[in-house]
């Protein structure tokens, strides 16, 4: 067995992804930069995901396939693939998106050229189920400012597509974060911490294709129950995403090495954002109250869980 450590690790967390998985895998394995490992963590899929992964794994030694005994949710699986990685650089991949062949080479070159960059990504083109282009604009995440507080403030106030989460990240930098939180929007937590540690560079090429389809998580943001189940693995998990993201922002600010004046400025910005989101905060408090009433008044709540 070779002791060679690849320069790049690609982590692909998946659950019931058979529909577009082959196309996603082909796009990764066709990269012009090929010094990488592909780590797949299957969240106990019930479709043909396992068969597809094992078929590709048998034909390409760069692939390592793992299967969880049960569905622990997307956030767990995102953390899992990074924990299993060994490369200098790391990239998350989705089972329904596509990367053009030059994607990795382009991002590796950017990270190699500038040590102040934490994440390198390319521009995004949105596609449908048949890979036809969609007329969707993306403000992007090109955060090249040398001011770490400014970069974090951008993340705190952002609410658009987080395609940058699929960029190429310095693994050593990523180890200094708490990774993805187990709640809807938990990817903003790791982005906030990464923003304090380095720049985000969005390269001008459209080498990343983000797919929209009926089963994509981006199509269920109006259903809190569905989204909670997606991130945590169960719809019975209490989730207050607006509160949780705010708390994580607070923790990120207070743990940072920023000067006290900058921390205070960011905390004021956080309070301003809370004021703008007061309707969401109140809604989540009501949902939490209903959750506790159902949980503690249910006849089965005192029975041991299997």
Describe the structure.
- The chain has 306 residues and is α/β, with parallel strands linked by helices.
- The protein has eleven helices and eight strands.
- Strands 3-2-1-4-7-6-8-5 form an eight-stranded mixed beta sheet, sandwiched between helices.
- Mean pLDDT is 91; it is low at 301-306.
Q: Which architecture of the largest domain per CATH? A: Alpha-Beta Complex
Across the major sheet, the strand order is 3-2-1-4-7-6-8-5
The helix-strand sequence is: EHEHEHEEHEHEHHEHHHH
Estimate the helix proportion, in percent.
Answer: 40-55%
**CATH topology heading of the largest domain:** Spore Coat Polysaccharide Biosynthesis Protein SpsA, Chain A
Low-pLDDT ranges: 301-306
Q: What is the count of DSSP helices, taking H or I runs of 4+ residues?
A: 11
Q: What is the CATH class name of the largest domain?
A: Alpha Beta
- Rounded to the nearest angstrom, the radius of gyration is 20 Å
């Amino acid at each position: 067995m070779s002791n060679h450590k690849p320069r790049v690790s690609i982590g692909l967390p998946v659950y019931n992804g058979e529909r577009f998985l082959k196309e996603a895998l082909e796009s990764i394995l066709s990269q012009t930069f090929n010094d990488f490992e592909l780590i797949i963590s299957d969240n106990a899929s019930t479709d043909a995901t396992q068969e597809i992964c094992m078929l590709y794994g048998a034909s390409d030694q760069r692939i390592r396939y793992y299967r969880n005994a049960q569905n622990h949710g997307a956030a767990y699986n995102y953390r899992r693939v990074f924990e299993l990685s060994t490369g200098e650089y790391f990239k998350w991949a989705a089972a329904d998106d596509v990367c053009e062949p030059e994607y990795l080479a382009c991002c590796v070159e950017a990270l190699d050229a500038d040590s102040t960059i934490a994440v390198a990504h390319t521009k995004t083109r949105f596609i449908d189920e048949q890979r036809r282009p969609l007329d969707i604009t993306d403000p992007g995440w090109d955060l090249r400012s040398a001011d770490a507080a400014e970069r974090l403030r951008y993340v705190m106030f952002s609410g658009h597509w987080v395609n940058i989460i699929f960029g190429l990240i310095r693994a050593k930098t990523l180890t200094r974060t708490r990774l993805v939180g187990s709640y809807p929007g938990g990817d903003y937590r790791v982005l906030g911490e990464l923003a304090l540690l380095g720049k985000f560079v969005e390269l001008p090429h459209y080498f990343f294709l983000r797919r929209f389809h009926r089963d994509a998580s981006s199509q269920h943001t109006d259903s809190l129950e569905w989204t909670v189940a997606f991130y945590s693995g169960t719809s019975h998990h209490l989730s207050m995403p607006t509160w949780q993201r705010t708390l994580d922002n607070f923790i990120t600010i207070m743990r940072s090495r920023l000067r006290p004046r900058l921390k205070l400025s960011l905390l004021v910005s956080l309070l301003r954002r809370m004021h703008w989101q007061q309707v969401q905060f109140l809604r989540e408090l009501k949902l939490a109250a209903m959750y506790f009433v159902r949980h503690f008044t249910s006849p089965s709540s005192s029975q041991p869980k299997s």
